[in-house]
Amino acid sequence: MRIENLDHFDVCIVGAGVVGLAIAQKLACSPAFQNCDIVLLEQNPDFGQQISSRSSEVIHAGIYYPEDSLKGRLCVRGKQLLYAHCERYDIPHKRLGKLIVAQISEEDRLQSLLLQAEKNGVDDLQIIERAQLRNIEPALSASAALHSPSSGIIDSHSYMRSLLQQAEVKGVVFAPLTKVISIEHAQEKFLLNTEIGKHTQQSEYQLTCRYLVNSAGLGSQNLASKIDGLPAELIPALHYCKGDYFNYLGKNPFTQLIYPLPEQNTQGLGIHGTLDMSGQLRFGPDAEFVDSENYDIDSSKARAFAEAISRYFPAIEVSKLVPAYAGIRPKIGLGDKFDDFQIQYGTECGFPGLLQLFGLESPGLTSSLAIAEELVLHLQNLET
């Protein structure tokens, strides 16, 4: 490949979702990279337009995940970093708390969740009995609940915008409408062939970089397949797991997040009640594997949603459930077992300088700054 006279960057990050933005911000603020050229590529017109704009915007505590998993460790660390970031940069957020509710005969599972959370370093949980629950949330029907006071919500768009602004102030180049077509690796550099602009006015553009970060979310596997010479067996499967959300037009009776016990499989956490920053109550997501990226919502699902929700909110009225939005989780498994975040370091497969992220579903938003912290530390170690 010819790499003379091309724009060269020290680091190229592909994907301007919440994790890509966090990596760009952390790199730009790192003393080890303060004099480096960093570019953030995004194929959409703006940042955060896929997974990151279609989440529940919940700040998770780190309760559900196996001990020593990346999800568990990075969620707990990320939560701390995220709340600190929100306070420092005045990002709208609320530490509402969360109740994970159990019905009769399910209470043993609450105790198991409590023990699991403690193994992950979550030490502020408390089991609340029925009588106290009636005082806290009168509309709630449950035998007992696990209270997580450190769970909350965030204005994810404001958060992502703050990350991009801080990165750009430090010199990061943000390049939207830039689609990667192919990637070659030689002479300790990556050559990226891209197309820039809208469909009717596209032009070719080539750049080189020393470090390449694949943070493309739903497109991570596709991007990895474009790296010439990368063994196919290193690219995990991608399964689209779609989740729909419904707004509730009735009066919101809750003051905090309400979650059922997680599903016995690992597809999702069950249809739960969340609030946005304005206090709007919404329910979701469900979990359904689909064949393609499609964000349409089947309004007839409202009845099934109401049936599930009525277990903990008996007064729900199905007529007041209206479609809100849908999101897609980039799962690397089919829900029959726990699938962790997957971080691949190129030094392990003959591509030094390559970092790839796969399966960054929930709790990706909560974990974003911790993921960035981990990757930046790895890149710093490569520099020394």
**Spatial separation of the terminal alpha carbons:** 28 Å
CATH 4th-level superfamily of the largest domain: FAD/NAD(P)-binding domain
Rough shape? globular
The average pLDDT value, as a whole number, equals 95
* Helix/strand order, N-terminal first: EHEEHEEHEHEEHEEEEHEEEEEHEEEH
Q: In percent, how much strand structure appears in the residues?
A: 25-35%
Radius of gyration in whole Å, from Cα? Answer: 22 Å
Could you say what the CATH architecture of the largest domain is? 3-Layer(bba) Sandwich
Major β-sheet, in short?
8 strands, mixed
Low-confidence residue ranges? none
- DSSP helix count? 8
The level of helicity is 25-40%
Report on the architecture of this protein.
It contains 8 helices and 20 strands. It has 2 domains: 7-53 and 158-237 and 338-383, FAD/NAD(P)-binding domain; 98-149 and 239-331, D-Amino Acid Oxidase, subunit A, domain 2 (D-Amino Acid Oxidase, Chain A, domain 2, 2-Layer Sandwich), CATH 3.30.9.10. The two termini are 28 Å apart. Helix 1 (18-29) packs parallel to helix 8 (364-383). By secondary structure, it is α+β, with helices and mostly antiparallel strands. The strands form 4 sheets. Strands 1, 2, 9, 10, 11, 12, 19 and 20 form an 8-stranded mixed sheet that branches. Strands 13, 15, 16, 17 and 18 form a 5-stranded antiparallel sheet that branches. It has a 4-stranded mixed sheet with strand order 6-7-5-14.
Q: Which helices and strands, and how do they pair?
A:
Blueprint: E1 7-14, H1 18-29, E2 38-41, E3 58-59, H2 70-89, E4 93-94, E5 98-102, H3 107-119, E6 126-129, H4 130-136, E7 144-148, E8 152-154, H5 156-169, E9 173-175, E10 178-186, E11 189-196, E12 203-214, H6 220-225, E13 239-248, E14 257-260, E15 272-275, E16 281-284, E17 288-290, H7 302-309, E18 321-331, E19 342-345, E20 354-358, H8 364-383
Parallel strand pairs: 1-2, 1-12, 2-9, 5-14, 12-20
Antiparallel strand pairs: 3-8, 4-8, 5-7, 6-7, 10-11, 11-12, 13-16, 13-17, 13-18, 15-16, 19-20
